[in-house]
Design brief:
This protein has about 270 residues and is an alpha+beta fold. It contains 7 helices and 10 strands. The protein binds a DNA duplex (13 and 13 nucleotides) through helix 6.
DNA sequence: AACTCATGCGAAT
DNA sequence: TTCGCCTGAGTTT
């Protein structure tokens, strides 16, 4: 479930669970054994999210970099004994024990998991656009990029060097809410529309962090179950056959190599 | 048991 | 534009 909201939620949760503590770091699967050994038993100073990247600042001065890709997941377990790893666990972080239960944080399936000098983090951030979930985000940077580009807006939204953190679901949903055809060139979008699009993305991502899921549909339009939602159940167009607003057949168009769902009626050319 | 699919992204073509 | 990689859940044989 990794778009930017997932990463920011992980940063918050892992800050609460692990920061300020001495952490045992291992790689049950083995593929991260060298990295784990470098920081094992040191203190986690902070956890930072930037777009879809997660950074662990370790007491050694080195920085852990995690990118979940499409399949990556974290699992957290609190228990009196450290559980045996379930499935492929690339990185395991454990605190607690003694008088309190163990907290085990397992990472599986990431695209990236490494321990690097600070310059690597700086280089990664340098090639990212503003992250709508960060206080230091400068919306104008993203809006200007889009307003000058002849690329389709649907491609621009997935370009992490334009906006960091938007993925395939939020792209489709934010464009729908703003009634913008994903194929329209960025520079063919009036700037007030691009500003509104940014605000929509901020609101959607924040809600995603709060609820730890993607549920973009306005609650007034749908009573949503509190738990996990099925695909297409809490979206306007993403993975839907029929438009929730007007009943038109939803279409997809490939943009930036991935299908972008849209309503041809609500998002006219 | 086999197969399909997924909210990502960089390298190869 | 396509391919390959990373893993697990859900669906189909």
């Amino acid at each position: 479930m990794p778009e930017g909201h997932t990463i920011h939620r992980l940063a918050k949760d892992q800050t609460r669970l692990l920061v300020g503590r001495t952490v045992r770091v291992t790689s049950p699967q083995g593929r991260f054994a060298d990295g784990a050994a470098r920081i094992d038993g040191t203190v986690l100073e902070s956890v930072e999210a930037y777009g879809k990247h997660l950074f662990h600042w370790w007491g050694t001065g080195e920085i852990g970099h995690v990118h979940l890709g499409l399949f990556g997941k974290f699992r957290v377990e609190r228990s009196d004994a450290v559980p045996p790893p379930a499935g492929e666990v690339r990185m395991r972080m454990v605190t607690g024990g003694g008088s309190e239960p163990f907290t085990t944080v397992d990472l599986s399936g990431p695209t990236a998991c490494s321990i690097d000098p600070p310059e690597v983090r700086a280089a990664i951030i340098a090639r990212l656009g503003p992250d709508p979930l960060r206080r230091d985000a400068k919306p104008a940077v993203a809006i200007e990029r889009m307003a000058r580009s002849r690329q389709p807006i649907g491609a621009l939204l997935l370009d992490q060097s334009v906006i960091a953190g938007v993925g395939n679901v939020f792209r489709a949903e934010a464009l729908f809410v703003n009634r913008i055809d994903p194929r329209r060139a960025g520079r063919a979008c009036p700037e007030p529309d691009l500003e509104a699009l940014w605000r929509t993305i901020v609101a959607m991502l924040r809600k995603g962090v709060r609820e730890d899921r993607i549920a973009t549909v306005d609650p007034s339009e749908l009573a949503l179950p509190r738990g996990r939602v099925r695909r297409g159940e809490a979206t306007y167009v993403y993975h839907r056959d029929v438009c929730r607003r007007c009943g038109s057949a939803i279409r997809t168009v490939a943009l930036a190599g991935r299908p972008c769902w849209f309503c041809p009626t609500c998002q006219p050319r």
